[in-house]
């Protein structure tokens, strides 16, 4: 057991850092440190292309598909250095982290050839269509329908919380293909072109005034019959496999963002004198401790990533960071005081800390609410009885 | 032993609850949020038709008499709908003028404030440059400051009335997180302010009014956040069950009620204590402000959480509650400060 | 709405106070401020007698049974003054607060004549037999059996958490009198003499080293056929009615004890300098606020006591005070520091604050755990769906 | 990236977990609680048969080498059974002697401590009267102080060895809430103490040892409190259902695991950081002590609560966990103090 990385890994880190810094202080200085998911999308696509040209866009993938076969440690290191260098949010993170790995694992050779290059080089941006208005926590309660008409699937229904849909080229959709089926049975996993008349995207404005999420409506939207992954009716297995790809390698990069947020709070406290307030100091210390434990929890989890064993650190990680960040938002506002409630300009647009406070309320909801997380921890981690469904 | 509403108080409560429920609708509040955070039509009906703007103010000057208990009943009902109204100005500035103003000052301002003809705002100005009655500097975070016609400003040495149209006054409005009560900066460039006759009385009335008003708003908002979340939990089905049937969900709602009931005791303890001139009044107002603000924030945060995804959309009203709750936390002293006052009262001097 | 009491009520307060103080500074000075439920039981019985002689033992009861027909306000006032004067814990509080009111409400004239005088004057101490090893939170899951044999009930089974059983003369027992019945049906409410061979009491030692609770075993224990309240099989209704007698009038007296505990913590902080610690000051302030809100919550609840409406203040009061006191115990220990972990003598016996810390852990359990309280609040107070039983 | 146990560490963990589970039974611990809080037979087997008392101590003096990670593995396993052992003395006094003692001091004490022939205890003596190497005054709250043969005492200026049988030393034992580790007062009347050669190294080793040992005990205790409560929740039926099927109950257990996993990261972060001489070591030990102590207390409190009535009886073991947890909260600096150290490390000077 040891804290750090091996010498070879540190060498890899130096290589990542050097390249990223040269780019983000050079050709891509304009998008260095860019916040949010919405702005400068064309430049961020250019950036994906530049990453791909240098085999940095999908380093965990096999070399034949543009990757480097990178180890988990290397992926962690790249994520850290990417964050440290001020890399902008990856425009195609759903393609890179979810769609691509799913196609790699379950797709046909034709599908790989068709989709993977565009994912790797950012020319094809992806979004995901899981949640529906009546399938929030209950993901399997899908009502969007797909029927095969000749050599095409015809899709009707509505997805919600489709982040990035407004600039995506492709969407993967879990749809009910067997009339009358319920829950996880009878679903099919389809890959659909967003650029067609049957697909309409409407942004959902959030409490911070921004709109990162969308509703996506399908009205006789179509895709070729071979656009499915797996077999018809088998979509749930594919979708669940896909969720499993979120192995947390991006976690340590994400934590660097948290680090910046906490540092900004400390700086604000030093400016307004609250750094001398014993109660605030306790809360800052708790936040610092929580952040450090997040790092070492992630390292424990990733050090075990190849083990089949259910890992407590992995099971608890989501609720841990989401709760930590929600609390950090409250601390930020308490430190800023009323100044934090005033926007910088005339628009309802927020600087980093108040925005984090507002947006942070969603951290404990999306990707499985804290309540769902606790069910999962209790049932899978502790072997407690499952919560009964009401419709069984 | 009658720590319960009188029949008259029950009647006032029913009237104002119905009034705000019917009139302070989401649609109207959202329209006000795009403007200056005041639903002027609502304010006019409240002042003139309902005639309740004078509650807690002397009848001689157009007020309705009664006291802070009745004022709290009104603020609770307004807070329950996150109504976009300058009620806080009545609780602070009008109370300060009524308590510390000369007869002339009262006669000039109170009738206008009670009728809704003028809007008032108040703030403390510790740190401002004060020379005699000439004030210079920026008064920050004035609630509804951009809409106010008159300001009451206090510090440890005095209390003053400043008209918005006085020479040297300029006001900058700010886009504020809680758009139902935007904050403004009032800049004073050597403004000749009008001193209130009894600064101490004005200061106490302003503080008590602010803390009771915010506490009562918080109570109303917290209760309504609970009510709406309970209603949603009986409607929304996940995994084939009403989400309100999940025990963890139920328990969180129960915890909200536990704190809300304490907040209710706090608001009316504070209001009664001030009305009765009780020795406990200072302890009560600090207790109420800190406890009620925390309760509201907890309940509004849970309202978002327990609504799931829809809860953090702009379209749903949960964020109105949440942002009002957040603003109350910091306004007129945050929780730590109020609790430190409580500690000082019971243990002696500040740490 | 007003904070205080009427002039007449204050006059009654003065009368209570004068009498109590004269006694507790006079003949009964030896038991003034006596902590716990176990010590000096004979003197505490004498004290009950003295109370009864002066019609102070059961003031809420009708005059014919030794009471004063006191209003709720008067009962509250008496409880406050009793606590203020340092009255010892009432040896017969179960008789006075539970058994007596039940007999008054549901008993026959013979039963009233037989039992009420002994309860009123403390010559007959009562305890209650509700809980069983398998009926903790699930009170209706009673297994103790009663069968009618000739003109006697014969009782077999085990009760637990029977506080005061070790010096009680009488016990009321909820027993299953209908073979094969389940849950709240088929139970009978019996009043039994503790002084008989078929009743055995074993003390349960608690985590503080003291033993206020007992297990009570019934092995062919007997009572006359007419020892029941209500009718056979109707015991659950009687028992539930009995629980409803806990109207909280003793609450404000109990709060005076809490006041003393908090004052002792403040005094300890002043002694060791933690009164200057900003974090401790916040916690003391929170405790103070909580205590005050408890008082005004109780006054709200009692001011409504005649209303049929379900009162939120009443529903939430138990969890409120139990949680407050558990937190107070933690604050006490944090203020005392390691000194609080050292007993005064050689025995495992604790001074007031550490004892409160230890014993306070039971406050959130007995009389309905915090979890059960939250169910009740959610179901009765908020109208949420009931928690399903597993055996229905 | 190898923040996971090596195969050797896994083996040590399995060995000590089995050892304490089999031997540190409730019955034996309770017998020790009636005596001086040490199960001497257990201590003897641990030191001699298992041969693990030397973990983290130099091989030259009878130690087993290895480091604080391995020590933490042992303390975690011992803490899981609330074993009545003077392990903390090894973590503090023996570590201090190893780090700051002269060769002679090490040669004299370490072999005896490793073999179990002698028991050690340590405490800081800020506020005591120190004149050269002559110590006078009462050393309070010495863990297992009444059973110790040797004390290591430190303050800002020095570090000393004091033998129990030295002239002027007298020890008063106290009935202590946690009877598995009674506190004693060691009274020094002009005692000629033996200075450790490198006081700074001794002080750091003592503190790091104390904080890591207590953190690891807390981790083990918290995990075991969770395990036993989970087991009970699957056995106990109320209202016709396993109580572990109630969602509120499940969620509370889940919350325990969330904190325990963080505590686990904290313990091994701190132990690694000390072993590796990392820059993060001070931050890590303060973080670990405060976080793990809080986690244990929360879990042990929940253990009582979730067992219902039986949980607060003397007969059930829950109170052993609860009292150990409570004692760890205060021992060698409470949570507020450790967090203040963290704040000072990241923000600069103390408030």
UniProtKB/TrEMBL annotation, chains A, C:
Family, similarity comment: Belongs to the acyl-CoA dehydrogenase family.
Presence of keyword Oxidoreductase: yes
Location of the Acyl-CoA dehydrogenase/oxidase N-terminal domain: 7-122
UniProt keyword Lipid biosynthesis present: no
Organism, scientific name: Caenibius tardaugens NBRC 16725
Pfam families: Acyl-CoA_dh_1 (PF00441), Acyl-CoA_dh_M (PF02770), Acyl-CoA_dh_N (PF02771)
Cofactor(s), names only, from the UniProt record: FAD
GO cellular component: plasma membrane
Protein name: Putative acyl-CoA dehydrogenase
SUPFAM superfamilies (UniProt xref): Acyl-CoA dehydrogenase C-terminal domain-like (SSF47203), Acyl-CoA dehydrogenase NM domain-like (SSF56645)
A single GO molecular function term of this UniProt record: flavin adenine dinucleotide binding
Domain of life: Bacteria
Keywords recorded for this protein, A-Z: FAD, Flavoprotein, Oxidoreductase
Ranges for domain Acyl-CoA oxidase/dehydrogenase middle: 127-220
From TrEMBL, chains B, D:
Keyword terms: FAD, Flavoprotein, Oxidoreductase
Any matching Pfam family: Acyl-CoA_dh_1
InterPro entries, sorted: Acyl-CoA_Oxase/DH_mid-dom_sf (IPR046373), AcylCo_DH-like_C (IPR036250), AcylCo_DH/oxidase_C (IPR009075), AcylCoA_DH/ox_N (IPR013786), AcylCoA_DH/ox_N_sf (IPR037069), AcylCoA_DH/oxidase_NM_dom_sf (IPR009100)
Residues of the Acyl-CoA dehydrogenase/oxidase C-terminal domain: 212-344
Superkingdom assignment: Bacteria
Domain Acyl-CoA dehydrogenase/oxidase N-terminal: 6-117
SUPFAM superfamilies: Acyl-CoA dehydrogenase C-terminal domain-like, Acyl-CoA dehydrogenase NM domain-like
GO MF annotation list: acyl-CoA dehydrogenase activity; flavin adenine dinucleotide binding
Cofactor: FAD
Similarity comment: Belongs to the acyl-CoA dehydrogenase family.
PANTHER family recorded: ACYL-COA DEHYDROGENASE, ACYL-COA DEHYDROGENASE FADE28
The name this protein goes by in its record: Putative acyl-CoA dehydrogenase
Species assigned in the record: Caenibius tardaugens NBRC 16725
């Amino acid at each position: 057991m040891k804290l750090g990385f091996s010498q070879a890994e540190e060498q890899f880190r130096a290589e990542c850092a050097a390249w990223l810094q040269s780019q983000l202080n050079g050709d891509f200085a304009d998008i260095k440190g860019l916040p949010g998911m919405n702005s400068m999308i064309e430049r961020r696509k250019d950036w994906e292309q530049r990453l791909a040209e240098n085999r940095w866009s999908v380093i965990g993938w096999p070399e034949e598909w543009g990757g480097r076969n990178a180890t988990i440690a290397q992926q962690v290191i790249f994520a850290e250095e990417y964050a440290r260098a001020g890399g902008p949010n990856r425009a195609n993170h759903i393609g890179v982290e979810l769609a691509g790995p799913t196609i790699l694992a379950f797709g046909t050779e034709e599908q790989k050839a068709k989709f993977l290059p565009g994912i790797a080089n950012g020319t094809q941006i992806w979004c995901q269509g899981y949640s529906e208005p009546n399938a929030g926590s209950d993901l399997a309660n899908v009502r969007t329908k797909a029927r095969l008409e000749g050599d095409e699937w015809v899709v009707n229904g509505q997805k919600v919380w489709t982040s990035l849909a407004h600039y995506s080229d492709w969407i993967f959709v879990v749809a009910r293909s067997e009339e009358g089926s319920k829950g996880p049975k009878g679903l099919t996993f389809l890959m659909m072109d967003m650029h067609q008349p049957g697909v309409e995207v409407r942004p959902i404005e959030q409490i911070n005034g921004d709109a990162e999420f969308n509703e996506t409506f399908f009205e006789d939207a179509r895709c070729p019959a071979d656009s499915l992954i797996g077999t018809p009716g088998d979509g749930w297995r594919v979708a669940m496999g896909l969720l499993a790809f979120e192995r947390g390698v991006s976690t340590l990069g994400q934590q660097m963002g948290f680090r910046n947020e906490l540092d900004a709070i400390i700086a604000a406290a030093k400016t307004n004198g609250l750094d001398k307030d014993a109660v605030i100091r306790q809360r800052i210390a708790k936040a610092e401790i929580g952040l450090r434990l997040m790092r070492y929890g992630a390292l424990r989890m990733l050090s075990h990533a190849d083990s089949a064993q259910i890992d407590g650190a992995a099971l608890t990680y989501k609720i841990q960071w989401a709760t930590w960040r929600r609390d950090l938002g409250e601390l930020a506002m308490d430190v800023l005081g009323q100044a934090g409630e005033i926007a910088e300009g005339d628009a309802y647009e927020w600087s980093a800390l108040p925005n984090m406070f507002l947006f942070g309320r969603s951290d404990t909801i999306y990707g499985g609410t804290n309540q769902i997380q606790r069910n999962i921890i209790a049932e899978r981690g502790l072997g407690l009885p499952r919560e009964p469904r009401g419709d069984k | 032993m009658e720590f319960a509403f009188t029949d008259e108080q029950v009647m006032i409560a029913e009237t104002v609850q119905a009034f705000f429920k019917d009139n302070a609708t989401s649609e109207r509040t959202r329209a006000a949020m795009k403007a200056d955070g005041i639903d002027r039509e609502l304010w006019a009906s409240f002042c003139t038709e309902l005639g309740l703007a004078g509650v807690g103010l002397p009848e001689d000057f157009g007020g309705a008499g009664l006291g802070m208990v009745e004022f709290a009943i009104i603020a609770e009902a307004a807070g329950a709908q996150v109504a976009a109204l300058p009620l806080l100005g009545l609780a602070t500035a009008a109370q300060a003028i009524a308590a510390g103003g000369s007869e002339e000052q009262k006669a000039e301002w109170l009738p206008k404030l009670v009728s809704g003809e003028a809007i008032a705002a108040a703030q403390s100005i510790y740190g401002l440059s004060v020379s005699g009655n000439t004030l210079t500097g920026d008064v920050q975070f004035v609630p509804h400051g951009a809409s106010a016609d008159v300001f009451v400003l206090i510090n440890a040495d005095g209390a003053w009335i400043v008209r918005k149209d006085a020479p040297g006054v300029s006001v900058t409005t700010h886009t504020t997180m809680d758009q139902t009560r935007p904050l403004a900066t009032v800049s004073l460039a050597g403004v000749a302010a009008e001193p209130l006759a009894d600064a101490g009385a004005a200061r106490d009335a302003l503080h008590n009014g602010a803390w009771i008003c915010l506490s009562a708003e918080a109570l109303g908002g917290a209760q309504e956040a609970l009510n709406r979340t309970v209603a949603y939990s009986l409607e929304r089905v996940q995994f084939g069950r009403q989400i309100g049937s999940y025990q963890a969900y139920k328990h969180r709602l129960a915890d909200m009620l536990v704190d809300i009931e304490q907040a209710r005791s706090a608001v009316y303890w504070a209001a009664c204590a001030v009305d009765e001139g009780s020795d406990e009044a200072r302890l009560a107002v600090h207790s109420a402000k800190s406890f009620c603000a925390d309760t509201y924030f907890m309940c509004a945060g849970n309202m978002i959480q327990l609504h799931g995804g829809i809860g953090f959309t702009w379209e749903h009203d949960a964020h109105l509650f949440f942002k009002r709750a957040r603003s109350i936390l910091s306004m007129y002293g945050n929780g730590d400060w109020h609790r430190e006052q409580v500690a000082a009262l019971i243990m002696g001097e500040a740490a």
